[in-house]
From TrEMBL:
Family: Belongs to the inorganic phosphate transporter (PiT) (TC 2.A.20) family.
Protein name: Phosphate transporter
Annotated Gene Ontology cellular component terms: membrane
Region (Disordered), start-end ranges: 283-328
Phylogenetic classification of the source organism: Eukaryota, Filasterea, Capsaspora
Task performed by this protein: Sodium-phosphate symporter.
UniProt entry tagged with the keyword Transmembrane helix: yes
GO biological process: phosphate ion transmembrane transport
Organism listed in the record: Capsaspora owczarzaki (strain ATCC 30864)
Keywords: Membrane, Phosphate transport, Transmembrane, Transmembrane helix, Transport
Predominant location category: membrane
Single GO MF annotation: phosphate transmembrane transporter activity
Compositional bias (Polar residues): 303-313
């Protein structure tokens, strides 16, 4: 065959690949930041700004230079050896089925696995091309996908709930919870950096090829990074946290970060009993805002909640962790904008959405049933949550950007070499860069929809809950993947949110079970619907009349 006769397939595949990466960004990236935004640790704009660097950086700097041609080897690429152009067409149809399904789920706010979507789409093209026998229906194929619907959310949920309960009964419900929170900051920093460093080095950066190195060296590096992080937190970060939490009025954030240069205001030697302080988000509606104790966000905003759960229009002090109900920027008539301004406004339209406030009385009632914890303690946990969600996003970028561009890389290889690449395909850096850019665009415009579902719409979120949710999900995905258990990050974070919601209050009323059921249904239909779309499209093109 002359592969250049099929340049149209390459062109269409590139467009669909960008759409697939866009859909992945709109749906999957929100997993890492949904709880942080819902808990008022970060604003939606701040989360999007951070993700621009973590997702793109993780994908380009640590992403795989070799990706699976067909994710999971669920069908045999050798079947296409005699007709490579057929595999080009199959990948094009698979990208179409996957991208449109994930986009449709995103528009409805349902968190689905983009990896399962592309696998389902490839199953559809495989069946359309060679029949049902070409698909691996056993445990190593479709069986793993079905198992992941149950293993991922339940395993992650149990781990996250266990972490939260330990934190709850050792810190959160104690009378001096703020003082205890400051003491455990170095411990959590050690554990978080230990988990994330191991994840990035051993699994998230395949180009480093550390799997073949001495395990003792990896363990030494991981523990070394964890110890350095704990020392940093103990001697520096705890002081910054106290400056942000205890000193009112706050000064600009950079002055607190550089307190050794600008000077440190006097802090009491002992933090004291917090029992008399307002509970986080637990004030009655008629209560006056607690200006002195209100948690302040890490980056300046125009307005925010005065506590984790009630909203006021108090102006923000300079800098901090938290804050989400940002004021919308002044509206400018579209006719007065340049074409660049219109494009920029469209690209950033998703950053001005309110994903925190309750949309209905039922949601407000669900949030009111949740146990609230002391404000200063929650604000201390917000520093930990920034760390956990950034780490989760960077690790996601290092793993999933390569997966997003795997199919187009297969098409590119066939177009260049007129042969099937096999189970692995080289991924040029510029493929990763384009994929990362499209992922970021998807997050900026539509990412807020899934964030809203995984945030307060599913269960009440706060920094302590969000931190345990994210750490539990990361630990689950890392451990289970090493044990050969099928897991999905999307399913894991959803299960963790629900289980932590249950564990925080011990009441089933704190979880939106109807929404959780719809999410589970969306997981089940992901594979068959993607397979149906791609399979029908493939069959129509292959069997269409030719002149």
């Amino acid at each position: 065959m002359d592969p250049h006769d099929y340049s149209w397939i390459l062109a269409v595949s590139f467009i669909l690949s960008c759409l697939n990466a866009y859909a992945l960004g709109a749906n999957d990236v929100g997993n890492a930041f949904a709880t942080a935004v819902a808990a008022k640790t970060l604003t939606l704009r701040q989360a999007c700004a951070i993700a621009l660097f973590t997702e793109f950086g993780g994908g380009v700097l640590l992403g795989a230079s070799v990706a699976d041609t067909i994710k999971g080897n669920i069908i045999d690429t050798s079947l296409f050896t005699s007709n490579p152009a057929l595999l080009m067409l199959a990948m094009m149809c698979a990208l179409c089925g996957s991208s449109f399904l994930v986009l449709a789920a995103t528009l409805k706010g349902f968190p689905v696995s983009s990896t399962h979507a592309i696998i389902g789409a490839i199953i559809g093209t495989g069946i359309a091309a060679f029949g049902v026998d070409t698909v691996d229906w056993g445990w190593t194929g479709v069986g793993k996908i079905v198992a992941s619907w149950f293993i991922s959310p339940f395993l992650s949920g149990f781990i996250s709930a266990a972490i939260f309960l330990i934190s709850k009964y050792t810190v959160l419900v104690k009378p001096n919870s703020y003082a205890r929170a400051l003491k455990v900051i170095p411990v959590f920093f050690f554990l978080t950096f230990l988990i994330v460093t191991f994840f990035i080095l051993y699994d998230g950066a395949p180009d480093l090829n550390l799997k073949n190195e001495n395990p003792g060296m990896i363990v030494g590096i991981v523990f070394g990074v964890g110890i350095v992080a704990a020392v940093f937190a103990y001697f520096y970060l705890v002081q910054v946290i106290r400056l942000r939490v205890e000193i009112r009025p706050q000064r600009p954030l950079y002055q607190d970060l550089l307190y050794f240069y600008f000077g440190r205001p006097h802090l009491p030697a002992y933090v004291g009993d917090d029992a008399a302080l307002p509970l986080c988000g637990n004030e009655p509606e008629h209560a006056e805002p607690h200006h002195d104790e209100a948690p302040q966000p890490l980056i300046p905003e125009v307005s925010r909640s005065n506590s984790y759960g009630s909203t006021t229009d108090e102006p923000l002090a300079h800098g901090s962790v938290g804050g989400v109900n940002e004021a919308k920027p002044p509206q400018v008539d579209a006719a007065q904008k340049s074409w660049f301004g219109k494009a920029l406004a469209a690209a950033s339209s998703g950053m001005d959405k309110d994903i925190v406030s309750a949309e209905s009385e039922a949601q407000a009632h669900m949030m009111s049933q949740a146990t609230k914890f002391e404000t200063r303690t929650e604000e201390t946990y917000s520093f930990l949550q920034v760390l956990s969600c950034v780490s989760m996003s960077f690790a996601h970028g290092s793993n999933d950007v390569g997966n997003a561009v795997g199919p187009i890389s297969a098409v590119w290889y066939i177009w260049q070499n007129a042969a099937v690449a096999g189970t692995k395909t080289d991924v040029p850096v510029w493929h990763l860069a384009i994929g990362g850019a499209c992922i970021n665009l998807g997050l900026l415009t539509l990412g807020w929809r899934v964030m809203k579902t995984l945030g307060n719409k599913l269960t009440y979120q706060s920094p302590s809950r969000g931190f345990c949710t994210e750490i539990g999900a990361i630990l689950t995905v890392l451990t289970a993947s090493k044990l050969g258990l099928p897991v999905s990050t999307t399913h894991a974070i959803t299960g963790s949110s629900a289980f932590v919601g249950l564990a925080s209050s011990g009441s089933a009323k704190t979880v939106n079970w109807r929404l959780l059921g719809w999410c589970f249904l969306s997981w089940i239909v992901t594979v068959p619907i993607a397979a149906l779309i791609s399979g029908l499209l493939f069959a129509m093109i292959v069997n269409s009349p030719r002149v």
